[in-house]
Design goal:
heterotrimer; A mainly alpha (about 325); B mainly alpha (about 300); C alpha/beta (about 475); B: about 300 residues; mainly alpha; C: about 475 residues; alpha/beta; D-Maltodextrin-Binding Protein, domain 2; 2 domains; nine-stranded mixed sheet; two-stranded antiparallel sheet
Chain lengths: ~325, ~300, ~475
């Protein structure tokens, strides 16, 4: 949380080593420029990101409600203990975990496979990549709506195709297991291209001479893959997984449109639950505490993961 | 430089160095690989194709069982319905598209104006706790929107920004600034600082040097960065649905979501609206295809 | 990594924010009771004025805008009426986030009858008791209709408490209608719930590809909850004991359990596969596509069924009406039907001249001849004389169903906690219908969780989980 003002406290001793006047003024104006260029952006972030977060932090210790109004009374950690001990929350946490693990694993495997296959092609690679990237560019609203249409049990095209090859109707969105699977499938459809793109960046950056050397050594394909390709792509892939996991953890819009949490509450993610707490009962204090806990989880897990990544790099 | 999908090197051709005896199996493998790739591409693209088909079908064909893949009457009525209301006036949907253009456009310009100079400063000068500052800037992007929307809502209520275009513009700008800084810092790093030093020896001030020599070199990077900011603002749904309430402010994503949940659902219209809405993004992302990797990872992965 | 320093900074900042906010005394001096509207309508402006409503997107909203702009402007030529619409799923959130913002872009919110408690408790809408006394002929209405769309605290089913305050006036009456295929099950609608299930069963067996029943099962809005509440009422159950504020042991008593059993084990098997997320539009689509023998839907949402453009049942309205019958709900142990529809209210955050205009509009709207015109324009009026008028009864085949249902209506709980109660019921009934929960467990969970919400009023921390 370094504030932009502290930039001006730069050690001044450097000035003594700068001989003539022109150099000195140049250095000063550099510092002015730095402040002038950085502080507007930082101020905006302070106002729009940090201040709201601190406000949420304050509210999380109160029983404030946005509609009831009136002064907020401090309940200190009661919101937090209530959330952490609530069976309802545990249920959503488990659902979210299943979803994150399922979706991220599936799209990593698929994304990497596609990238690997594309990287082995010479012709048509640009066109292929561009086509594969289309789902990623669509709005989650469009993706959600359209899959809801395609997955409709009665007149959806998926069941129609299953029917024409002799398989029965599947209730994609209204059965406990299939609904979560549908969510995972749709998310995978949209975000496999993301993993693919990053994996492709890693694969295509593998220096050609390494393969040539290996080829001369008559190394087996699998050996080359394991000893040359994978080690070079692995760190990139791990970053991609981190990005996806964070995004998946806070999933809201797809649930809102595709299943609205159903059947029952079986596809309600943590974000969706926060929404209900915040906007159905307008329990702003509880919702804020809930949100703060989610942010903490993301930060702690991301830090641990980054540490693992850095260790990997050092090895 | 970010990886371009067109010009990258393939490990594929190495196969040519293999002994001739193994070529036939190699060719068989190529066929299998191409087939697998084709199937995967078909699966990934089918929903998009189905969306396009649905948008040009008449409603009775949309609900047909079994689904009609080729044998249907083509109509462009749904696309007309996206823009023209039954009474001949513009639809609320077309108003929402216009709102999206304004909100996404202005917030992108603002994020660029704020972010590019900051990125330049972070790249060129020694700033105290630079790494911490940069990490902090990035971390603001990782908060779940549903969580952020609560305090933002309370704040906007106080200052009268609730249900205003300005309110949406500000929050989108705040979400795009970190991204702009991270991505642009990479581009600035690639422009040698010596250019500016040389210019300053010629008597230009630092600011002039930045303006006259560095900025023009950054333009392609700025364009790419701006497009990604634009795509984010264009597709965003959570803030849009919770911070707007009137047709005059509502952007396209919540407006399209609102097409379902009445007494009847016109899937042809939903499909047509989705296509119209997705088209600009697809065109733009094609334009910045060389910077895609950097773009989708907030500049974290560049190569 | 200088964490200690950063934490120190953070703590300072938090204290700073906290003290600022506390010093401001929360953030607004919100009133906890509704402001009163004047008994007499204040002088109206002659300047151009837009009177805004908020409703969800469905045909009656369009009908209202067209009707008001055609008729109300005859009396008030400087006024334009605008009916803002939001998706049904977003209706409650859209109104109440604006109420929470203490700034509304609508003057007349059209609240669901059960939203009144929340709006009144938060002081979001005007108390119009005095205005009604002076300007509205209360004897022209069935007392329960007046109570359901305006009174708080809630009235007993079928009655009105004349000493209670009023916060709204009826805009659109509504209830469920049974829609049945005359060509498949015969001209006479089943009279009891048992007969209805038997007829649906027979029809489904005889007509492959057509399912016996179609009704609301979704977990959003009030879809699945209204379905359960309807069966609960018909089988003699109660949703709660309003005086003792008791739900546990009431909704899940023997009658309640039987209702849940009928719904999940007898009715659900007769619905189409994958219908577990159906609401108004999906049920309509099933009927229009000829895929349901018997369906239940809100009357106000049924108009589209007679539109040949959207139907496969016939090429003309008459042809469709030859196949579709509309009837009041079958009876079983009681004859109760769900109360639907909405009332008009006045936003407490509108400008005084718009509030005056809103009151004037309400007074105008509730006149006998205007109510008849509203009926002819496709609306469902509330005045008894309008309900028995030929203008209303001839406007649609389902209007007689409504007129016959008025004396049989029952509403849900109208309390500030409504949004949470309905969510608990929706998600649990939806879970039971889709096999995610055993029906008995689902009903007991509803009772336990809803009771928890009612009891948690004074509890500190963790509200809303």
């Amino acid at each position: 949380m370094s504030d932009p003002v502290s930039l001006t406290d730069q050690p001044v001793q450097e000035a003594s080593t700068t001989p003539p006047a022109p150099g000195r003024s140049r250095h000063l104006s550099d510092r002015l420029l730095t402040v002038a260029f950085i502080s507007p952006a930082l101020l905006l972030l302070l106002a729009m990101s940090v201040f709201p977060l601190l406000w949420a932090l304050y509210l999380s210790f109160t029983d404030y409600s946005a509609t009831r109004g009136g002064p907020a009374t401090f309940v200190w950690f009661e919101n937090f203990t209530a959330i952490l001990t609530s069976a309802q929350v545990h249920l959503r946490a488990f659902t979210t975990l299943l979803y994150v693990v399922g979706a991220v694993t599936l799209q990593t495997v698929l994304g990497f496979s596609i990238a690997y296959l594309i990287s082995r092609r010479v012709r048509g690679r640009g066109v292929l990549t561009t086509l594969f990237l289309v789902p990623m560019m669509l709005s989650p609203v469009v993706v959600g709506l359209f899959w809801r249409f395609m997955l409709d049990a009665q007149f959806g095209v998926i069941n129609s195709m299953l029917g024409s090859i002799g398989l029965g109707q599947v209730e994609w969105l209204t059965k406990q297991n299939t609904a979560l699977i549908s969510l995972i499938v749709v998310d995978t459809w949209q975000w496999t291209p993301f993993i693919m793109l990053i994996a492709l960046a890693g694969l295509t950056a593998v220096p050609k001479y390494l393969y040539e050397a290996a080829s001369i050594d008559r190394a087996s394909e699998w050996f080359r893959f394991r000893t040359i390709t994978l080690p070079l792509v692995w760190p990139l892939l791990l970053i991609a997984v981190l990005f996806r996991a964070i995004e998946a953890f806070r999933l809201f819009d797809l649930v809102y449109i595709l299943t609205s949490g159903g059947p029952g509450v079986s596809t309600e993610t943590l974000s969706f639950h926060v929404y209900k707490v915040a906007f159905l009962g307008f329990n702003t204090g509880t919702a804020s505490a809930y949100g703060i806990l989610m942010v903490l989880i993301v930060i702690v897990l991301a830090q641990l993961y980054m540490r693992y990544l850095n260790k990997l790099k050092e090895d | 430089m970010a990886v371009s999908v067109d010009e990258a090197v393939s490990p594929g051709p190495v196969r040519d160095h293999r002994p001739p005896g193994r070529r036939s199996t190699g060719r068989g493998r190529v066929v299998i690989e191409v087939a697998v790739l084709a199937v995967l591409a078909a699966v990934m693209l089918f929903p998009v194709l189905w969306m396009i088909e649905t948008s040009i079908k008449e409603n009775r064909d949309v609900y047909a069982i079994p689904a009609k893949f080729f044998d249907f009457t083509v109509t462009l009525d749904h696309f007309k319905d996206v823009f023209v209301a039954s009474d001949g006036g513009p639809t609320t949907l077309s108003g929402a598209f216009l709102n999206s253009v304004i909100v996404a456009g202005v917030s992108t310009v603002l994020a660029t104006v704020l972010g590019v100079p900051a990125a330049w400063a972070y790249s060129r000068f020694s700033v105290k706790a630079k790494k911490d500052q940069l990490f902090f800037i990035l971390s603001t992007r990782f908060m779940p929107p549903v969580v952020v929307v609560i305090p933002i809502f309370l704040m906007y209520r106080q200052v009268g920004l609730f249900d205003t275009k300005l309110g949406l513009i500000l929050i989108y700008t705040a979400f795009n600034v970190p991204f702009t800084i991270w991505m642009m810092k990479g581009f600035v790093d690639e422009v040698p600082a010596e250019y500016e030093d040389a210019a300053m020896l010629d008597g230009y001030t630092r600011l002039q040097a930045f303006w006259k020599f560095t900025l023009p070199l950054l333009l392609p990077g700025i364009a790419a960065t701006a497009v990604f900011a634009l795509i984010f603002s264009w597709n965003e749904f959570v803030f849009a649905i919770f911070l707007t309430s009137s047709d005059a402010v509502r952007t396209a994503p919540p407006a399209i979501a609102g097409l379902i949940g009445g007494t009847t659902v016109d899937w042809g219209l939903v499909a047509a609206a989705s296509i119209v809405f997705a088209l600009p993004v697809l065109v733009f992302s094609y334009l910045v295809r060389k910077h895609l990797v950097a773009g989708v990872t907030l500049g974290a992965v560049r190569r | 990594m200088r964490y200690p320093k950063r934490i120190g900074l953070l703590a300072t900042a938090v204290m700073l924010v906290a003290t600022t906010v506390v010093a401001c005394g929360g953030d607004e001096g919100a009133s906890t009771s509704s402001p009163k509207a004047p008994a007499d309508i204040p002088e109206l402006t002659k300047d151009p004025l837009t009177l805004s409503f908020i409703w969800f997107d469905w045909p009656p909203a369009k009908a209202l805008e067209a009707f008001a702009n055609a008729e109300y402007t005859k009396e008030r030529s400087n006024v334009t009426v605008k009916v803002n619409v939001v998706p049904n799923a977003n209706w409650h959130d859209a109104m109440f986030t604006q109420f929470a913002a203490r700034k509304t872009d609508f003057d007349i919110p059209i609240l669901d009858s059960q939203h009144i408690g929340e709006a009144v408790t938060n002081g979001n809408i005007l108390d119009i008791t005095d205005f009604v006394k002076k300007n509205i002929d209360v004897n022209a209405y069935n007392p329960y209709l007046l109570a359901a769309y305006g009174q708080f605290p809630q009235a007993e089913t079928g009655k009105r408490d004349e000493n209670a305050s009023l916060y709204g006036l009826p805009l659109l009456g509504d209830t469920w209608t049974m829609i049945y295929r005359k060509d498949l099950i015969g001209d006479t609608p089943p009279a009891t719930w048992d007969e209805m299930i038997a007829a649906a069963q027979k029809c489904q067996t005889e007509n492959p590809g057509v399912s016996g029943l179609a009704f609301h099962q979704a977990n959003g809005s009030d879809a699945a909850a209204v379905t359960y509440n309807t069966v609960n009422g018909v089988y003699g159950g109660n949703l709660w004991d309003s005086k003792a504020r008791k739900i546990e042991g009431v909704i899940n008593d023997a009658a309640g359990q039987e209702a849940m059993d009928v719904l999940v084990n007898k009715m659900k098997p007769l619905t189409a596969a994958g219908s577990g997320n159906w609401f108004i539009d999906e049920v309509n689509a099933a009927v229009a596509q000829g895929k349901a023998c018997i369906a239940f839907n809100w009357i106000a949402a049924s108009g589209g069924l007679l539109d040949p453009e959207q139907s496969t049942l016939g090429k003309t309205r008459e042809e469709i009406l030859g196949k579709l019958g509309f009837a009041t709900l079958p009876k079983q142990k009681t004859d109760l039907v769900p109360l639907g529809g909405m009332g008009m209210h006045v936003s407490a955050y509108s400008s005084p001249e718009k509030q005056a205009e809103a009151l004037n509009f309400m007074k105008w709207f509730e006149q006998a001849d205007i109510q008849k015109k509203w009926a002819a324009a496709g609306g469902v009026p509330a005045r008894t004389d309008a309900l028995s008028s030929p203008e209303f009864l001839n406007a649609g085949p389902f209007n007689k169903v409504y007129a016959d249902s008025v004396s049989r209506m029952r509403d849900m709980w109208n309390v500030p906690e409504y949004a949470r109660l309905i969510d608990i019921e929706n998600t649990n009934v939806n879970a039971a219908l889709n096999g995610a929960k055993d029906p008995k467990t689902a009903l007991n969970d509803i009772a336990k969780e809803q009771q928890g919400v009612l009891d948690s009023a004074g509890k500190k921390g963790g509200g809303g989980l």
